[in-house]
Specification:
Layout (H helix, E strand, L loop, with lengths): L3 E10 L2 E11 L4 E5 L6 H9 L6 E6 L2 E5 L13 E4 L11 H11 L4 H14 L15 H13 L5 E5 L7 H18 L2 E6 L2 H7 L2 E6 L2 E6 L1 H6 L4 H6 L6 E10 L3 E5 L4 E6 L10 E7 L5 E2 L5 E10 L3 E8 L2 E8 L9 E5 L5 E5 L5 E7 L1
Parallel strand pairs: 3-8, 3-9, 6-7, 7-8
Antiparallel strand pairs: 1-2, 1-4, 4-5, 9-10, 11-12, 11-14, 12-13, 13-21, 14-20, 15-19, 16-17, 16-19, 17-18, 20-21
């Protein structure tokens, strides 16, 4: 079954390192998203797996077959790797109908007409574009063009499908619809999907695993909810999540054997680690990560805050809170709003507040606050 393994993959462009000693394994049938800011190496990684870019060092295996090795000189061409590639601009032939665009690759492979008809009609139905089979790309919407591009890519039956930011040209509503279609398609085809995006919401909603990169270095490679709730470091915590996580600079001190007193000029909190025991010397610089949805506006809260701003959207309201000069972002679910300047009480009643070492920025514990 098709799975992919990257061992010590490095790519240099002159003195610039685009990908630095990357080691990941993509299992059969997974939907893996390569995520990160512009220039982090995600597209370069995708192109190296597909064979469109040559690594400087390392080895790539597809189905336990070595398709690239800097040691032995193996470099299998893209057409022999049994992969499909969906480009950002779709690259449809403008002078060909939808049917011809999908059938084109099969005709080049010398499939017989009856088999081509059956395969094209199967894909037209799967992608729900049967009624457009006689139209030209210019007569289609962006979402319809994208479905044609997906059908064309799937036509030859690749077990691995690569996608490089395929939704970036669509409007917000259509992007949401196409996320749904891509997730459904992944289940129906049983193929392995490798997807590139800088949009963390796409990565969270589509992936079975997220491969988060920064400046060519792997930061975390885990399922989306693990990345969200247990970020490996400060960068991961800040990059994944909307609204962004609150990061508070604190000083720590070990108290009561297993608890940590966290203080800054705005707050005094007691932190109880739940994932691992930690030792914190007095005055240790720490970073406390608080997700916006884990701040509760409640009459039972022990901390007074002033409403700084509100952004109601119907389903939720994003609230900025002023705690003695410290601004915190909070999310309140439901159709509620608050008056700017109004005083409220807040509390911390969740169980997953993340603590980072301020020097290394690594995750050292998750725990509760009081």
């Amino acid at each position: 079954m098709p799975h992919i393994r990257l061992e010590h993959i490095t790519k240099r462009f002159g003195k610039a390192v685009a990908v630095d000693d990357l080691n990941i394994e993509i299992k059969d049938g997974e939907f893996v998203t390569l995520l990160g800011p512009s220039g982090c190496g995600k597209t370069t990684t995708l192109r190296m797996i597909a064979g469109l870019e040559t690594p400087t060092e390392g080895e790539i295996y597809i189905d336990d077959r070595c398709v690239f090795s800097s040691k032995t000189g193996v470099d299998i061409s893209p057409d022999k790797r049994n992969v499909g590639f969906l480009f950002q601009n779709y690259a449809l032939w403008p002078h060909m109908t939808v049917y011809k665009n999908i059938a084109f690759g099969l005709e080049n492979l010398k499939w017989d007409r009856k088999t081509i008809d059956a395969r094209v009609n199967e894909l037209l139905e799967m992608l729900r574009i049967s009624e457009y089979h006689g139209r030209y790309p210019a007569e289609l919407s962006g979402g319809q063009q994208q479905r044609v591009a997906i059908a064309r890519t799937l036509a030859t039956g690749p077990k691995i499908l690569f996608m490089d930011e395929p939704l970036s040209n669509l409007d917000a509503k259509l992007r949401m619809e196409m996320r749904t279609e891509l997730k459904r398609l992944h289940v129906e085809t049983g193929s392995t999907f490798v997807y590139v995006t800088h949009d963390q919401l796409e990565a969270m909603t589509l992936s079975s695993k997220i491969c988060l990169l920064k400046e060519g270095l792997l930061q975390q490679y885990e399922p989306p909810l693990d990345v969200y709730h247990n970020p490996a470091n400060h960068f991961v915590a800040d990059f994944v999540g909307s609204p962004n996580i609150n990061i508070l600079e604190m000083e720590g001190e070990q108290v009561n054997l297993d608890e940590v007193k966290l203080t800054n000029k705005h707050l005094k909190l007691l932190y109880t680690p739940t994932t691992s025991s930690i030792t914190v010397p007095k005055g240790k610089k720490l970073l406390l990560g608080i997700r916006p949805e884990d701040i509760a506006i409640t009459d039972e809260g022990s901390i007074e805050a002033k409403i700084y701003s509100t952004l109601p959207s119907g389903m939720e309201t994003i609230v900025k809170l002023d705690v003695d000069g410290l601004l915190l972002t909070c999310v309140v679910f439901g159709g509620v709003d608050f008056e700017i300047g109004h005083l409220v009480k807040i509390g911390f009643n969740a169980k997953n507040y993340v603590l980072f070492d301020a020097d290394s920025e690594l995750n050292i514990a998750s725990g509760t606050l009081s």
